[in-house]
Protein backbone atom coordinates (compact mmCIF):
# COMPACT_ATOMS: atom_id res chain seq x y z
CA UNK A 1 0.00 0.00 0.00
CA UNK A 2 1.37 3.39 -0.97
CA UNK A 3 1.87 6.00 1.71
CA UNK A 4 0.92 9.61 1.16
CA UNK A 5 3.94 11.94 0.84
CA UNK A 6 3.26 13.34 4.33
CA UNK A 7 3.32 9.86 5.87
CA UNK A 8 6.61 9.01 4.16
CA UNK A 9 8.73 11.53 6.04
CA UNK A 10 11.04 11.40 7.84
CA UNK A 11 12.55 8.33 6.21
CA UNK A 12 14.21 5.76 8.42
CA UNK A 13 17.97 5.72 8.21
CA UNK A 14 17.91 2.30 6.54
CA UNK A 15 15.45 3.48 3.88
CA UNK A 16 17.46 6.64 3.26
CA UNK A 17 20.70 4.74 2.77
CA UNK A 18 19.10 2.13 0.52
CA UNK A 19 17.65 4.86 -1.69
CA UNK A 20 21.01 6.64 -1.68
CA UNK A 21 22.73 3.43 -2.66
CA UNK A 22 20.44 3.17 -5.71
CA UNK A 23 20.67 6.85 -6.62
CA UNK A 24 23.39 6.43 -9.23
CA UNK A 25 23.01 2.88 -10.49
CA UNK A 26 20.90 -0.26 -10.10
CA UNK A 27 22.32 -2.77 -7.64
CA UNK A 28 21.53 -6.31 -6.54
CA UNK A 29 20.88 -7.13 -2.90
CA UNK A 30 24.45 -7.84 -1.87
CA UNK A 31 25.66 -4.69 -3.65
CA UNK A 32 23.13 -2.61 -1.70
CA UNK A 33 24.18 -4.27 1.56
CA UNK A 34 27.85 -3.43 0.99
CA UNK A 35 27.13 0.08 -0.24
CA UNK A 36 24.92 0.91 2.74
CA UNK A 37 27.69 -0.28 5.06
CA UNK A 38 30.15 2.00 3.29
CA UNK A 39 27.83 5.03 3.03
CA UNK A 40 26.96 4.82 6.72
CA UNK A 41 30.66 4.47 7.60
CA UNK A 42 30.14 1.02 9.04
CA UNK A 43 27.17 1.96 11.25
CA UNK A 44 24.44 0.19 9.29
CA UNK A 45 25.30 -3.44 8.67
CA UNK A 46 22.11 -4.85 7.15
CA UNK A 47 21.19 -8.49 7.54
CA UNK A 48 19.55 -10.25 4.58
CA UNK A 49 16.22 -10.31 6.45
CA UNK A 50 16.25 -6.60 7.20
CA UNK A 51 17.42 -5.69 3.71
CA UNK A 52 14.72 -7.67 1.92
CA UNK A 53 12.02 -6.52 4.34
CA UNK A 54 12.97 -2.94 3.47
CA UNK A 55 13.17 -3.70 -0.26
CA UNK A 56 9.70 -5.24 -0.15
CA UNK A 57 8.27 -2.06 1.41
CA UNK A 58 10.06 0.11 -1.14
CA UNK A 59 8.74 -2.02 -4.00
CA UNK A 60 5.21 -1.74 -2.61
CA UNK A 61 5.58 2.04 -2.43
CA UNK A 62 6.91 1.99 -6.01
CA UNK A 63 9.99 3.92 -4.91
CA UNK A 64 12.19 1.24 -6.43
CA UNK A 65 11.66 -1.41 -9.09
CA UNK A 66 13.03 -4.89 -9.59
CA UNK A 67 14.79 -5.52 -12.87
CA UNK A 68 16.48 -8.43 -14.57
CA UNK A 69 20.16 -7.64 -14.60
CA UNK A 70 21.44 -8.07 -18.15
CA UNK A 71 24.67 -6.15 -17.65
CA UNK A 72 27.58 -8.52 -18.37
CA UNK A 73 29.62 -6.87 -15.61
CA UNK A 74 28.04 -8.92 -12.88
CA UNK A 75 30.28 -8.86 -9.83
CA UNK A 76 28.91 -11.98 -8.20
CA UNK A 77 28.00 -14.75 -10.64
CA UNK A 78 26.45 -16.84 -7.89
CA UNK A 79 23.74 -14.30 -7.12
CA UNK A 80 20.34 -14.27 -8.83
CA UNK A 81 20.31 -11.84 -11.74
CA UNK A 82 17.85 -9.48 -10.11
CA UNK A 83 18.69 -5.88 -9.40
CA UNK A 84 16.87 -2.91 -7.92
CA UNK A 85 16.56 0.51 -9.48
CA UNK A 86 15.24 3.81 -8.17
CA UNK A 87 11.99 4.97 -9.83
CA UNK A 88 11.11 8.58 -10.60
CA UNK A 89 8.89 8.61 -7.52
CA UNK A 90 11.71 7.19 -5.40
CA UNK A 91 14.15 9.80 -6.69
CA UNK A 92 11.68 12.57 -5.90
CA UNK A 93 11.17 11.19 -2.36
CA UNK A 94 14.94 10.98 -1.86
CA UNK A 95 15.43 14.56 -3.07
CA UNK A 96 12.67 15.83 -0.77
CA UNK A 97 14.25 14.04 2.20
CA UNK A 98 17.68 15.47 1.37
CA UNK A 99 16.17 18.97 1.19
CA UNK A 100 14.42 18.38 4.52
CA UNK A 101 17.64 17.21 6.16
CA UNK A 102 19.55 20.18 4.70
CA UNK A 103 16.93 22.48 6.14
CA UNK A 104 17.18 20.83 9.56
CA UNK A 105 20.98 21.15 9.52
CA UNK A 106 20.74 24.82 8.49
CA UNK A 107 18.27 25.65 11.28
CA UNK A 108 20.31 23.74 13.87
CA UNK A 109 23.53 25.45 12.79
CA UNK A 110 21.95 28.91 13.01
CA UNK A 111 20.43 28.13 16.39
CA UNK A 112 23.74 26.84 17.78
CA UNK A 113 25.48 30.03 16.61
CA UNK A 114 22.82 32.05 18.41
CA UNK A 115 21.36 33.47 15.20
CA UNK A 116 17.66 33.60 14.31
CA UNK A 117 16.69 30.75 11.91
CA UNK B 1 34.55 -15.81 -6.91
CA UNK B 2 31.44 -16.48 -4.93
CA UNK B 3 30.03 -19.97 -5.10
CA UNK B 4 26.49 -20.71 -6.14
CA UNK B 5 24.15 -20.71 -3.17
CA UNK B 6 23.49 -24.18 -1.81
CA UNK B 7 20.56 -25.21 0.28
CA UNK B 8 21.77 -24.94 3.86
CA UNK B 9 20.79 -23.79 7.28
CA UNK B 10 19.99 -20.29 6.08
CA UNK B 11 17.81 -21.60 3.23
CA UNK B 12 15.93 -23.53 5.91
CA UNK B 13 15.57 -20.40 8.03
CA UNK B 14 14.17 -18.52 5.03
CA UNK B 15 11.32 -21.05 5.02
CA UNK B 16 10.12 -19.50 8.28
CA UNK B 17 9.06 -16.31 6.47
CA UNK B 18 5.49 -15.86 5.17
CA UNK B 19 4.93 -17.74 1.87
CA UNK B 20 4.49 -14.64 -0.27
CA UNK B 21 7.67 -13.03 1.06
CA UNK B 22 9.57 -16.30 0.70
CA UNK B 23 8.42 -16.79 -2.89
CA UNK B 24 9.49 -13.28 -3.85
CA UNK B 25 12.82 -13.01 -2.03
CA UNK B 26 13.73 -16.43 -0.59
CA UNK B 27 16.25 -17.41 -3.23
CA UNK B 28 17.84 -13.96 -3.29
CA UNK B 29 18.06 -13.81 0.49
CA UNK B 30 19.83 -17.14 0.69
CA UNK B 31 22.21 -16.13 -2.11
CA UNK B 32 22.99 -12.78 -0.47
CA UNK B 33 23.59 -14.43 2.88
CA UNK B 34 25.89 -16.99 1.24
CA UNK B 35 27.80 -14.14 -0.43
CA UNK B 36 28.14 -12.37 2.91
CA UNK B 37 29.26 -15.59 4.56
CA UNK B 38 31.83 -16.23 1.82
CA UNK B 39 33.27 -12.75 2.39
CA UNK B 40 33.36 -13.42 6.14
CA UNK B 41 35.18 -16.74 5.59
CA UNK B 42 38.04 -14.87 3.99
CA UNK B 43 38.42 -12.88 7.23
CA UNK B 44 38.43 -15.97 9.45
CA UNK B 45 36.07 -17.87 11.68
CA UNK B 46 35.33 -14.99 14.13
CA UNK B 47 33.85 -13.03 11.20
CA UNK B 48 31.79 -16.07 10.20
CA UNK B 49 30.51 -16.38 13.76
CA UNK B 50 29.63 -12.67 13.92
CA UNK B 51 27.81 -12.90 10.57
CA UNK B 52 25.73 -15.83 11.81
CA UNK B 53 24.98 -14.23 15.19
CA UNK B 54 24.04 -10.94 13.56
CA UNK B 55 21.63 -12.66 11.19
CA UNK B 56 20.13 -14.89 13.88
CA UNK B 57 19.68 -11.99 16.29
CA UNK B 58 17.72 -10.09 13.63
CA UNK B 59 15.61 -13.06 12.58
CA UNK B 60 12.85 -13.05 15.26
CA UNK B 61 12.15 -9.33 14.80
CA UNK B 62 12.11 -9.64 11.02
CA UNK B 63 9.81 -12.67 11.15
CA UNK B 64 7.38 -10.94 13.50
CA UNK B 65 7.39 -7.84 11.34
CA UNK B 66 6.75 -9.74 8.11
CA UNK B 67 3.98 -11.88 9.63
CA UNK B 68 2.35 -8.78 11.12
CA UNK B 69 2.44 -6.95 7.77
CA UNK B 70 1.14 -10.07 6.03
CA UNK B 71 -1.72 -10.31 8.54
CA UNK B 72 -2.55 -6.62 8.06
CA UNK B 73 -2.59 -7.03 4.30
CA UNK B 74 -4.93 -10.02 4.57
CA UNK B 75 -7.19 -8.14 6.99
CA UNK B 76 -7.51 -5.29 4.50
CA UNK B 77 -8.39 -7.79 1.78
CA UNK B 78 -11.01 -9.42 4.03
CA UNK B 79 -12.52 -6.02 4.80
CA UNK B 80 -12.78 -5.29 1.09
CA UNK B 81 -14.38 -8.69 0.56
CA UNK B 82 -16.90 -8.10 3.36
CA UNK B 83 -17.97 -4.85 1.73
CA UNK B 84 -18.50 -6.72 -1.54
CA UNK B 85 -20.78 -9.19 0.23
CA UNK B 86 -22.71 -6.39 1.94
CA UNK B 87 -23.17 -4.58 -1.36
CA UNK B 88 -23.95 -7.79 -3.25
CA UNK B 89 -26.50 -9.18 -0.83
CA UNK B 90 -27.54 -6.30 1.42
CA UNK B 91 -28.77 -4.01 -1.33
CA UNK B 92 -30.94 -6.64 -3.07
CA UNK B 93 -32.44 -7.59 0.30
CA UNK B 94 -33.35 -3.98 1.01
CA UNK B 95 -34.79 -3.59 -2.46
CA UNK B 96 -36.95 -6.67 -2.06
CA UNK B 97 -38.18 -5.49 1.32
CA UNK B 98 -39.08 -2.10 -0.19
CA UNK B 99 -40.92 -3.75 -3.08
CA UNK B 100 -42.93 -5.93 -0.73
CA UNK B 101 -43.90 -2.98 1.41
CA UNK B 102 -44.84 -0.88 -1.61
CA UNK B 103 -47.08 -3.31 -3.42
CA UNK B 104 -47.70 -6.58 -1.69
CA UNK B 105 -50.57 -7.68 -3.93
CA UNK B 106 -48.66 -6.89 -7.12
CA UNK B 107 -45.81 -9.11 -6.08
CA UNK B 108 -48.13 -11.97 -5.28
CA UNK B 109 -50.05 -11.97 -8.54
CA UNK B 110 -47.45 -10.99 -11.07
CA UNK B 111 -44.28 -12.51 -9.73
CA UNK B 112 -45.69 -15.89 -8.77
CA UNK B 113 -46.25 -16.81 -12.41
CA UNK B 114 -43.00 -15.57 -13.97
CA UNK B 115 -40.42 -15.51 -11.24
CA UNK B 116 -39.40 -19.12 -11.59
CA UNK B 117 -38.44 -18.61 -15.22
CA UNK B 118 -36.70 -15.32 -14.45
CA UNK B 119 -34.63 -16.95 -11.71
CA UNK B 120 -33.64 -19.74 -14.08
CA UNK B 121 -32.60 -17.15 -16.68
CA UNK B 122 -30.60 -15.17 -14.12
CA UNK B 123 -28.87 -18.34 -12.96
CA UNK B 124 -27.95 -19.29 -16.52
CA UNK B 125 -26.59 -15.79 -17.15
CA UNK B 126 -24.42 -15.95 -14.01
CA UNK B 127 -23.08 -19.39 -14.81
CA UNK B 128 -22.66 -18.43 -18.49
CA UNK B 129 -20.71 -15.29 -17.63
CA UNK B 130 -18.33 -17.10 -15.29
CA UNK B 131 -18.07 -20.04 -17.70
CA UNK B 132 -17.18 -17.73 -20.58
CA UNK B 133 -14.48 -16.04 -18.50
CA UNK B 134 -13.01 -19.37 -17.45
CA UNK B 135 -13.13 -20.56 -21.06
CA UNK B 136 -11.24 -17.44 -22.20
CA UNK B 137 -8.76 -17.79 -19.33
CA UNK B 138 -9.62 -14.31 -18.04
CA UNK B 139 -10.92 -15.24 -14.65
CA UNK B 140 -8.76 -13.74 -11.90
CA UNK B 141 -7.85 -15.61 -8.73
CA UNK B 142 -8.86 -12.64 -6.56
CA UNK B 143 -12.56 -12.98 -7.35
CA UNK B 144 -14.91 -13.81 -4.50
CA UNK B 145 -15.29 -17.38 -5.67
CA UNK B 146 -16.96 -18.61 -2.48
CA UNK B 147 -19.69 -16.00 -2.66
CA UNK B 148 -20.35 -16.58 -6.36
CA UNK B 149 -20.38 -20.35 -5.89
CA UNK B 150 -22.86 -19.96 -3.02
CA UNK B 151 -25.11 -17.73 -5.09
CA UNK B 152 -24.89 -20.10 -8.03
CA UNK B 153 -25.84 -23.08 -5.87
CA UNK B 154 -28.82 -21.25 -4.32
CA UNK B 155 -29.87 -20.11 -7.78
CA UNK B 156 -29.62 -23.64 -9.14
CA UNK B 157 -31.89 -25.03 -6.43
CA UNK B 158 -34.46 -22.30 -6.93
CA UNK B 159 -34.23 -22.46 -10.69
CA UNK B 160 -35.01 -26.18 -10.50
CA UNK B 161 -37.92 -25.68 -8.11
CA UNK B 162 -39.12 -22.28 -9.31
CA UNK B 163 -40.85 -23.08 -12.60
CA UNK B 164 -42.72 -26.03 -11.10
CA UNK B 165 -43.83 -23.99 -8.12
CA UNK B 166 -44.85 -20.98 -10.18
CA UNK B 167 -47.06 -23.15 -12.39
CA UNK B 168 -48.94 -24.35 -9.35
CA UNK B 169 -48.93 -20.96 -7.63
CA UNK B 170 -52.70 -20.57 -7.72
CA UNK B 171 -53.15 -23.82 -5.83
CA UNK B 172 -50.87 -22.72 -2.98
CA UNK B 173 -51.90 -20.75 0.12
CA UNK B 174 -51.15 -17.02 0.00
CA UNK B 175 -48.38 -17.28 2.61
CA UNK B 176 -46.58 -19.90 0.50
CA UNK B 177 -46.94 -17.78 -2.62
CA UNK B 178 -45.43 -14.83 -0.78
CA UNK B 179 -42.53 -16.91 0.53
CA UNK B 180 -41.79 -18.38 -2.88
CA UNK B 181 -42.00 -14.95 -4.51
CA UNK B 182 -39.56 -13.46 -2.01
CA UNK B 183 -37.20 -16.40 -2.42
CA UNK B 184 -37.20 -16.14 -6.18
CA UNK B 185 -36.72 -12.36 -6.13
CA UNK B 186 -33.75 -12.91 -3.82
CA UNK B 187 -32.31 -15.44 -6.22
CA UNK B 188 -32.62 -13.09 -9.16
CA UNK B 189 -31.08 -10.24 -7.18
CA UNK B 190 -28.35 -12.55 -5.94
CA UNK B 191 -27.54 -13.64 -9.47
CA UNK B 192 -27.42 -10.04 -10.64
CA UNK B 193 -25.17 -9.17 -7.70
CA UNK B 194 -22.98 -12.16 -8.55
CA UNK B 195 -22.66 -10.92 -12.11
CA UNK B 196 -21.83 -7.41 -10.89
CA UNK B 197 -19.20 -8.79 -8.50
CA UNK B 198 -17.71 -10.96 -11.23
CA UNK B 199 -17.43 -8.01 -13.60
CA UNK B 200 -16.08 -5.74 -10.85
CA UNK B 201 -13.46 -8.29 -9.80
CA UNK B 202 -12.60 -8.77 -13.47
CA UNK B 203 -11.92 -5.05 -13.83
CA UNK B 204 -9.91 -4.70 -10.61
CA UNK B 205 -8.37 -8.20 -10.55
Short description:
Chain A has 117 residues and is mostly helical.
Verbal overview:
The complex is a heterodimer of chains A (117) and B (205). Chain A is mainly alpha-helical and 117 residues long. Chain A has 5 helices and 2 strands; from the N terminus they run H-H-H-H-E-E-H. In chain A, helix 2 packs across helix 3. The longest helix of chain A is centred in the C-terminal third of the chain and has 25 residues. The relative contact order of chain B is 0.10. In chain B, helix 4 packs across helix 5. Chain B contains 6 helices and no strands. The longest helix of chain B is centred in the middle third of the chain and has 58 residues. The N terminus of chain B is likely disordered. Chain B is mainly alpha-helical.
Give unreliable regions of chain A as ranges.
Answer: none
Number of helices of chain A: 5
Oligomer: heterodimer
Largest sheet of chain B: none
Q: What string gives the helices and strands of chain A in order? A: HHHHEEH
Largest sheet of chain A: 2 strands, antiparallel
Q: How many beta-strand segments of chain A?
A: 2
Strand content of chain A: 5-15%
Radius of gyration of chain A: 16 Å
Task: Output the strand order for the largest sheet of chain A.
Answer: 1-2
Please mark out the parts of chain B with pLDDT under 50 across 5 or more consecutive residues, or reply none. 1-5
Give the distance, in angstroms, between the N- and C-terminal Cα atoms of chain A: 37 Å
Q: Give the C-alpha Rg of chain B.
A: 28 Å
Amino acid sequence: MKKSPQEAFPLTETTLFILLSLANQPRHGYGIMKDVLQLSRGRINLTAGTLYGALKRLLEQAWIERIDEDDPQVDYPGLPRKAYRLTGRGRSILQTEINRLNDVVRVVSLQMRGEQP
Amino acid sequence: MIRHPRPGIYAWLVRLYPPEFRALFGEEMAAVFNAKLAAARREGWPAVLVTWLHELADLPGNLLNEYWLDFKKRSEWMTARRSSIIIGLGLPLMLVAALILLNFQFILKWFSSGLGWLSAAAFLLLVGLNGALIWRGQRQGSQPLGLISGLALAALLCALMGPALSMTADLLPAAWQTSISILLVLVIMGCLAGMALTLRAQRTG
